[in-house]
Amino acid sequence: MKVTEPLIDTGQVDLAGFDRALGDPADPAALLSFARSAELDRGERFPADICRELDRMGLPSLYVPAEFGGALTRYDELVAALRAVARRDLTVAIGHGKTFLGGVCMWLAGRPEQARELGADIIAGAPVSWGLTERGHGSDLLAGETTATPEPGGGFRVHGEKWLINNATRGTLLCLLVRTRPEGGPRGFSLLLADKRRLPADRWRPLPKVPTHGIRGADISGIALDDCPFPADALIGEQGAGLEIALKALQLTRTACTALSLGAADQAVRLAEEFAARRELYGRRLVELPHVRRVLGEAYAALYAAEIVSVLAARSVHTLPEEMAVISAVAKSYVPTRVDELIAACGELLGARAFLTEVHEHGAFQKLERDHRVVGIFDGSTFVNQHVLINHFPVLARGHQKGTADEEAVGRTADLSAPPPPARLDRLSLLARGGCGFTQSLHTASGELRAPASAGEVPARVAELAEELTNSCDRLHRELALIPPASQDVQPEAFALASRYEQCFAGAAALRLWLHNRTPGEDPLWLEAVLTYVLRSVRPPGQPTDGEVFDRLFDARAAGRPASPPTSVVTW
Amino acid sequence: MNIPESAPSDTDLRSWLRARVAHYVQLDVADIDTTTALTTYGLDSVYALILCGDIEDHLELVLEPTVAWDHPTIDALARHLEETLAQGSPSGESR
Amino acid sequence: MIDETGSRDAQAGIAGPEDDPATAASIEDLAAATIDTPTTASLNDLEHLFGDPWDPDNPTGHAAVLAADEAGEMLAAGERLLDGYGLNAEFVPPELGGRLTRLDHLIEVMRVVFRYDPCLGLGYGASSLIPAVNVWAAGDERQRRRMAEVLLAGGRAVSGYHELAHGNDFARAEFSALPGDDGRLRLNGRKEVIANARRAEAMVLFARTSDAPGSRSHSQLFVEKADLPAGAPVHLPRFHSAGMRGVQLGGLEFRDCPIPADAVLGAPGLGMETALRSFQVTRTALPAMTAGILETGLEVTARFANERVLYGRSLAGMPYIGSILADAFTDLLICDCLATVTARSVHLLPGETSLYASAAKYFVATLLMDAMDALSRVLGAQFYIRDGGYGIFQKHLRDLAPAGFGHTARVACLSTVLPQLPRLARKGWLDDTQPPAGVFHLGADLPPLPFERLSISSGGRDSLSASLSAALGSCELDGELRRLVLVIAAEQADVRRECAALAPGDLTVAARPEALRLAARYAAVLAATACVNIWLHNRERHDAFLSDPRWAVAALGRIAERVGRDPGQRPRHVTERLSAEVLSRYRDRRGFGLSNRRLPG
C-alpha cells in the first residue's frame, strides 16, 4: 500500500496509524507479508522496496531526535515503532532500524550543525551504518586495528577493515570506531563519520555480503579502507573519546534492540496461537489440551515480562539516565534470552510446521526462529551484557544496602499516563554509581500492595508473591556483595547471579507498572503471572512453582478478557 | 489389593470392568454400556493398555497387552477373560 | 582420581584437581581405553573413508558438506562413500545377510555418519532403517527376504506414516487400503514429508484397513515400487525445510491403486502394534545416532575457544566458557549413558523397552538441543555465519531440529510413558529385581536382537529403575557421588508417590502439564540411573577419564538441576576436569562420547 502523508513526522507521531498501515502479514497484499518475506529470505535479497515504503511513512524521522530535526522525543515510541515492524518481519526491522544505531553517537557527541546535517540525510532516506567490530575481535572493541592517523593539515588517513557490519554496503554513511593512538587504550579510539559520497572511490570498498543463519536478506558485510582520507569535520566528539561515546551509545541502542525481540515474540505467539486453535489432534483441537494451554499461558507471561523490561528501560532513558548502564545491560541480556526460550516453546507446539519453509504462513516460523537468534548476538551479546552487569555488582550491592533510589523517578518511569520528561543524554554514565532504583525500591512497592491486599482489593496471593520477590532480591544482593570485584576470571556463578538479578529487575518493573497504572477493580492477573514467572528462576531449587496461574492467564486471553499489562499494544 | 479366592463370577467381572471404565472416562457407572465399543467412551489405544494392566493386577493373570484392542467391549472382554480363567490362563502363566 | 589403594577422600569422594592433571592420560592409556568392539575395525574404516573433516579439499569434509547443504542436495561423494562401505548392511539382520547384530554397534556406526553430515545420517541411513525394522519385526519370510535384498543391493526404503493433517496422531491416518472387487487392496490417500519419497524402491505404508473403530483397523503394507502400476504413486512436490536441507522430503499420493494381496505385514489389523513395537528400536537408535551432532558441535566450539582471543586472553581459559563446554560435554555423556543402556536393554530386556525407548527419546533429544543452543552462545557471531571456519555449526544446529519433533515428538513420547507409570508405582517399582549386569557393561556381548519379543507394554516391570537403589548398595559409591545418587533417589521416591496418586484423566493426551512432567522426571531419573551404573560397571576399563567419578558427579548434578532439585555447589575442580577433557580431546582428535575413540585427521 502507498502512503501519501507521513505518519511519523516532526511533532506528530501516529503510532497506531503506522501500525495499521503496516497491515496484516497474513494478507499477501500487505506491505509486509509472510509471503513476500519468505520469498526475499529464500533469495537472500534485501527488502529494499519495503524499506523505501517505511521511509515514506516517516519511520526514519523517529531515528533522529527532535532537536536535530527529527520526530524522536520518546524512546518508548521508538521501541513501539520498531516492534511493530519486527512483528511482521525481523529482517526488515533489523535492516531499517540499523540507521538509528548508526546515528546515536552523533546525537550524543556531535556538533549541533553536524548532527542536524546527519538528521537531514536520515530523514531523506539515507541509510546510516555503525562500524564497531572487526574480523577476529568480536566484541573486544579495544582490540580494534582500524587506524586513523591525523594528517598534518587536519583530517585523517584511515586504514583497516570493519567487518560483520549491518548495512555496511547499503549505508550511505557509516559511523566508524577507529584507533587514533597507536597504543590504543580507553582514550586511544575516536569516532569518524564516513560519508561515502565524499570519500575517494579508490580508497574504500565494500566487503562481500556474509551469508548468515537468519536475516538472510540483510546486508551483513563490511568495509575496507585503504589509507582513505577523511576530512577533519568527520570527527564525532573529541579525539580519543570514541570508546566512551560508543559505550554510552550502546546503552541507547541495546535498549532499542529489545524491540526486535518483542516483535519476534508477538509473531511467534500469534503463529502458535492460530495453529493451536485450528489444529485437530487426537480428536480434539490442540488448544484444548492442557499442556498446550500451559505452554501458551507461559509464553504470554514471558512476553509480558520481556515487554515490561523493554518499555520501562526505554522510558528510563528519560527518567533514570544515570542508571542506564545497568538497565540497558539487563534489558539486552534479559529480553532476547526470554524470547529465544519463548520461540523454542512455541516451535515445539508447531512441530514440523516450525521446520518446513513453505507450509503454515509460508514457513514464517522457521524464518523468525533463525532471524531472532541474531538479537542475542549483535550490539553486545548476552555474554557481554552480563559482563557489564557483573562489573556493577559492587555498586548494586552498595546501593541496595543504602537505598538511595530516586523513587519519584522510578514512579515516573512506570506511570504510563504521563509522557516522560525530555531525555537527558548528557547524564548517561558508564557506571551506574547509585545502583538501580527499581530493585532498590522493591520494599516500598511491595509495601504498597499490603493495604489493598488486606482490604481484599488485591488477591492476597499477589501480595505474597511481591513479598517473596522482595526478600529474594535482598538475599540476592547479599550474595552480590560477596562476589569479588570482577577480574578477568569471572566465575560461572557470577553469570548465574546476573541472570537472577535480571529476573528480580523484571519482577520489580512489573510490580511498579501495576502500581502506577492500576484502575479500581482491575484483576492483577498479568502481574501474578509475571511475578510467578520470574520467581520460578529466582527461587532456590527444590521449591516447585505452581503453574496454574498460566492456565488462568490463557483462559482469560482466550475469552477476550483484558489480561495484558498496559505496555501491550499489539494490533496487526 | 483384591485377591480372588476363586475366579470371580461373570457378573462380578463385568461390574468390575464397568467400574474401571467409568473411573477412567469419568462417567457414572450407569452410563457405561457393556456392549458399546470402548473407543466410543474415548478409551483410546493407550487407555486400553492401562486397562490391561489393571486387569492383570486384579485377576493375577498375564495377558496380551492388546487384549482390549481385540475384545473392544466390556462384554467381549469379560467373555474372553472368563475363558482365559477357565482354561487356566493359556495366554500366560499365573504369577 | 581415585587412589588405587582404595583410601578415598572421604569428604568429597573425589580428590582435588592437583592429583589429576587433565592431561595426565597417556597415549597408551587412551589406546587401552578405547572400547574394543567387533566393529572397532569397521568404525575406523568408516572414519578413514570420511577423512579429516577440517581439510577444505576433502570431498566429504565440512566444506563439502556445507556446500551441499547450501545447494539443498545430498552430498553425492558421501552417498558414494556409504555405497562403498555398504552402510545398508548395517540395517539388515545377519540371517538375512547383513551386519545388524547389535543396536549399540549400529548406533556407533551411524553416529560417525551424523558427525560428518546429518543429512546423510537421515537421508541415507535412518530413513531406510525405520521401514526395515518394521519388516524385521512383523514381516513374513518373503517380505523379510525382499527388504534385505533391496537394501543389500544399495536400494532405499521409505516409511509412510506421516500425514501433515494428523501429525503424531497416526491412528487417525486417512490413508486407506481396502479390498477392491478383485480382492486386492486398493490404496487411497497421501503420505507427506517423507524422506526419499522419490528415490525409494521399497516402502512400508501405514494404512487404515478397516472402517471399524479401535486399534485393530490399521496395517502396515510392504510395497515395492516395481509391483505398482505405471504412474503410481503420484509424487507430491518436495517439502523444503530449514534444516536437513539436503534430504529430499516428498510425498506420495495413491488414487485407487491396486497392490498385491500379500503386501500386509503380519496379519491385517496389527499395524498399530507393529508400529509401537518397532518404534522401540528406532526411538532408541535415532536420538543416539543424532548425538553425533553434539559431538561435532563440541568439536567446533572447542576449536573456536582454542583459537579465539578476547580481551587479551584465550577464550578457552575463561572459567565461564570452560563451564559451558563442560556442561555440554556432560550432557553428551548423559545422552550416551542413557542411549547405550537403552540400546542394550532392547537385547536384554525387550519386554521393558516400551518404557525406556520413549523416555530415552524424549530425554536425549531435549539434552542435545539444549546443549547445542548453549554452545551457539559461546560461538557468538561466528555461530551466525554460514561459511568460514565455523559455518558447519549452524548447519548441524538446523539439522538437529527433527530430533525434537520427528519420529514421534517429545511430548508424544511422554504420553507413551505416562500411562505405564501408575501401575509401576503400585507394583513394579516395589520389586527390586535387578536387570542383567550386561546392560551396563560397555561393549560386552549381547544376544541377537529379539524383534519378536518387543512388547507394547512393560507389563508393570521396570528393572532398570531398580538398579538405582542397587547402586547405593555398592561400597564403591561414596562421597559426592553417593550424595548426588541420594538426591536422585529422593526424586525417584517423589515420582513414585506422585504417580501412584495420578487421576485417570492424567493418563491420556489430555494430561495436566504436571502429569506429563512426571514422565519427564521419570526419564531424568532413568538417565541418572544409567550414568551411575555405567560408572560403577566400567571402572576396570583402564580409561582414566571414565573411571574418574567426576564426570558422573557432574552428570547427576545436571540431571538434579533439570528436575528442580538442589544438587549443591559443584566443586570447581569437577568442572575444570571436564572442560580440560574437552580441550584435550579436541587437541588429540578424540571423540567426545563415552567410547573416547581416536579420530582421523
UniProtKB/TrEMBL annotation, chain B:
Tell me which PROSITE patterns the record gives. CARRIER
Q: Which domain of life is it from?
A: Bacteria
User: What is the protein named?
Assistant: Acyl carrier protein
Q: Does the keyword Phosphoprotein apply?
A: yes
Question: Which segments constitute the Carrier domain?
Answer: 8-85
GO terms of biological process kind: antibiotic biosynthetic process
Q: Which controlled-vocabulary keywords does the entry list?
A: Phosphopantetheine, Phosphoprotein
One Pfam family it belongs to: PP-binding
Does Phosphoprotein appear among the keywords? Answer: yes
Q: Which InterPro entries match?
A: ACP-like_sf, PKS_PP-bd, PP-bd_ACP
Q: Which GO terms describe its molecular function?
A: phosphopantetheine binding
